[in-house]
Amino acid sequence: MADKATTTAETQTAHHGGSSGMPQLDPSSFASQIFWLVITFAVLYGFLVRHILPRIQSVIDDRQAKISADLAAAEKAKEEAASAKDVFEKEISTARSKAFLLIQDAQSEIDAMFVKSNHKLEQKLAKELLDAEAAMSAQTQKTARDMQPVIEDVSTMIVEMLTRKKPTSGSVSKAVTQAMKG
Predict the structure, then answer these.
(1) For residue 7, is it within any domain?
(2) Does 174 reside within a domain?
(3) Which of 7, 74, 101, 175 is 20 to 30 Å from the Cα of 59, by its Cα?
(4) Is 4 part of a structural domain of the chain?
């Protein structure tokens, strides 16, 4: 068996030109290596072109279509947002105008109510003032009437003390009445 192993090694050495290196680097086998390289490359290239590259291209196309659709949707959403913003701003403007008009109307109503209330209050106060003046005048006249006999008696005493004569009751009463009338 040892003979058999030796002969196989000798055969390989003789077959490879006496060199015991890598068979790929043997210049005598370059032509067959290039032939099989071209065949392998052509088969691999054909497989890639027919099966792998179309799948890759379809994935790229699908992604590009999705990106385009997303960009279109984003642009549409942007336009809708701008439109909604315009509508919102118009609504806000309208609401502010209505609120301003409502405030003006309310202010006008309040002013009118204030003027009306103030006028009623002035009328009431004027009436109460007239009533109070009339009551005071009536009270003053009543008090004067009630005090007239006392005033006449006091006046009679004063005149009598000053002149040492007793005046007539008619002249004292006449003088007191004229003095009270003013």
Answers:
(1) no
(2) no
(3) 74
(4) no
